[in-house]
Structures are given as structure tokens and as C-alpha cells.
Amino acid sequence: MLEISHLEKKYGTKTVLADVSVSFGEGVYGILGENGAGKTTMLRCIAGIIRNYQGTIRLPKDCHIGYLPQRFGMMEELTVWEALKYAALLKKIKASDDRMEQLLRLLNLEEQKDKRVAKLSGGMLRRLGIAQAFLDEESLVLLDEPTAGLDPVERIRFKEFLQEMGRKRTVLLSTHLLNDVEAVCQKVMILQGGRNIFEGTVEELKARAPEDEASVEEGFLWAIGAR
Predict the structure, then answer these.
(1) pLDDT band for position 168 (50/70/90)?
(2) Helix and strand numbers, DSSP H then E, in the chain
(3) SS3 helix, strand, coil % of the chain, rounded to 5?
(4) d(CA 29, CA 52)
(5) In DSSP terms, which residues pair with 32 in a beta bridge?
(6) Nearest by Cα to 173 from 207, 156, 148, 203
(7) Distance of CA 83 to the CA centre of its chain
(8) pTM for this entry
């Protein structure tokens, strides 16, 4: 269980996160909000990249964190296979060859395993970033706009990947693509102005909109007061 209590973060006089309290168990959770709502900052606090915040973040016992930032980079001279090995070394985890093969297969990178990172397309690099976030089978995984740069076919493949890989771990998915949320998330939370204004199931979010307009998109717009 990941537990966040009264999380606050300021940059100077600007409040980015304000008294956010939420808990996450196993499953895939959508983190929604407009640009600047605090989604990335919250993930960076959980990942330990930002440390000077107020409040508490309690991580699951003995958990490793897999993190995909909005901008993912890797040493360009490495091959895809070497990059995963290097990521495991940096994280101080043991990733078996079988595990790495599984990730590459599920993310359609098998044929690229010997290709250097410098030669990857933007979509391939993004999929490599997703793979390194899931190297540890017991990890808490934080994904910041994971489908950015993926073509429609790879977005569908990613949803299938997440449905399989998100079953026995906690995955936080920050995205502005609401269709992705409906396909893979058990629950969602919405940040607005740094505050948690909604927490519930996808169906509960859809119910925020009038019955004849019920959808994730409309529920989101009603929740943030844009309708």
C-alpha cells in the first residue's frame, strides 16, 4: 500500500501541491488533471526526485520504484539489451534474461534488442523507457505520459501490456489521454490547482456527467467545473 498524507510542495510562493492525501493498493490508477495541475510533481515526490516537500509518503515495504519521466533518455552508445542491463544495475535489482525478454516481447522491441539507443525512433525509445520501469517484478511503477510518441497500434499494445503487468503491483498512470484511463485503470484521481478534487472508480467519474452524456471525458469536465 502506498499512502500519501497531507502532501504539499511549493516553488517560491507558488503552491504546486496542496494537502494531497490518497492511498493506492494493487492495480492501475489514473492520475488526471489539466496542465500544471501537479501530476508530474506528485510522481517526482513519490519517486524521491523531489525531497523538500511537506507531508508524508509511505511506500510499500521493500519496494523498488520503476519510473518513466515525461522525457526519458539513455546512453546512446548502448544497445537496447545493454540499456536494460544498465538500468537494472542503477536500480540495484536483479533482472533475469527471461524477464527482459518478456518485456521486449510484450512491447514489440524483440527485433530491436541489438540496436543502439541512438538509432531508435521516438516511439521505440518510449517503449524502452516503459520496459525499464517494469524491470523489477515487485516494483511500484510511476508512468508520466507513457503513450506520448506512440502510434495508434503501439498505444493499443501498451494498454494490453498494462492490463497484464498491472495486476500484482501498484501502477500510477499520469495522462491527459482519457481513453487510456477507461481502458486500463481501476480507479482515478483528479488534481486541480494542486488539490485532489476527485478519487473514485472510472464508473463513479462517468457518473459525474448527466446520464445521457456519461463518459470519462464528460465526467472529467464536470469534475473540474468546465461544464
Answers:
(1) confident
(2) 8, 9
(3) 40, 25, 35
(4) 25
(5) 190
(6) 148
(7) 20
(8) 0.93
